[in-house]
């Protein structure tokens, strides 16, 4: 690494070009206040590509036509992937006590063993999707007569790779209630590694795939029972939030639920076809 790299900055032109690409294609706003964060995150790409400076990276993207190749890395640099197991636990309590019983009673679900389809639409490294699987698997263990399939999607390929592996640090796994953790997490053989892996029984029920919430249409079933879209809308502007939510809601079955993060309920208010159930849960 050249010693000048840490003081290296992006020119206004390159910062604006990157911000525009990210805003139009990913939805994430990159105001000037995010510039230092972006520069910090892009430095590892400068090194990986053996370029000299951040502006060399800008030229690589826009003058040498490498934006398409670099897009996935750029996305990994601008996304915030913080997540936790049982984050905002009230959502999982509501799912267990109210939403699942109501969904199982819907006309389309009155079979022997209905299949509930759950979608974690900004899945990050998978904690939300596996939390859903743990809650539903516990219900089945208690006699619940339904089946379930969980889809986790995200725009970042890097987080999806981690999600599919299902391996987490002990620190992260601590958020899972002890009895549930014992049931669904295998400790590493070597305790020094301080990590555990989600059991195959749950990993089999959870599938991950790349999906950009900005896409006009996506190949997802239109009879999804519950869509979780939490802690991602905050990065989008108002019109983008509405467009993303309208598209998501169109994939819900009538009677299905949309769940957003606690700071995001304002963006759902008044969306046609949705009725508010709690401050952050909406029913189609
Ligand atoms: C902060 S995490 C939220 C994870 C989880 N939903 C939770 O609440 O714990 C936000 C995730 O949204 C993803 N994301 C950002 N823009 C996206 C887009 N346009 N399409 C799909 N996912 C996106 C990011 O890659 C990131 O993993």
Which secondary structure elements does this structure contain, and how are they paired or packed?
Elements: H1 12-25, H2 35-48, H3 54-62, H4 67-78, H5 90-104, E1 115-120, H6 127-141, E2 147-154, H7 157-165, E3 167-169, H8 170-173, H9 178-184, E4 185-187, E5 195-198, H10 200-203, E6 206-210, E7 224-229, H11 238-249, E8 252-260, E9 275-276, E10 281-283
Parallel strand pairs: 1-2, 1-7, 2-6, 7-8
Antiparallel strand pairs: 3-5, 4-5, 8-10, 9-10
Helix pairs in contact: 1-3, 2-4
The site of S-adenosylmethionine has 24 residues, from loops.
Written overview of the protein:
The chain is an alpha/beta fold and 284 residues long. It folds into two domains: 3-78, Orthogonal Bundle (Chemotaxis Receptor Methyltransferase Cher, domain 1), CATH 1.10.155.10; 90-283, 3-Layer(aba) Sandwich (Rossmann fold). The protein is 40% helix and 17% strand. It is globular. The termini are far apart. The relative contact order is 0.12. The structure holds S-adenosylmethionine. S-adenosylmethionine binds next to loops.
- The total of helices stands at 11
Low-confidence stretches: none
CATH architecture of the largest domain: 3-Layer(aba) Sandwich
The bound ligands are:
S-adenosylmethionine
Assign the structural class, choosing from mainly alpha, mainly beta, alpha/beta, alpha+beta, or little secondary structure.
alpha/beta
Task: Give the neighbour order of strands across the main sheet.
Answer: 6-2-1-7-8-10-9
Strand content: 15-25%
CATH class category name of the largest domain: Alpha Beta
CATH topology of the largest domain: Rossmann fold
Overall body shape: globular
What about the largest sheet? 7 strands, mixed
Mean pLDDT over the residues: 95
Pattern of helices and strands: HHHHHEHEHEHHEEHEEHEEE
CATH superfamily of the largest domain: Vaccinia Virus protein VP39
Radius of gyration: 21 Å
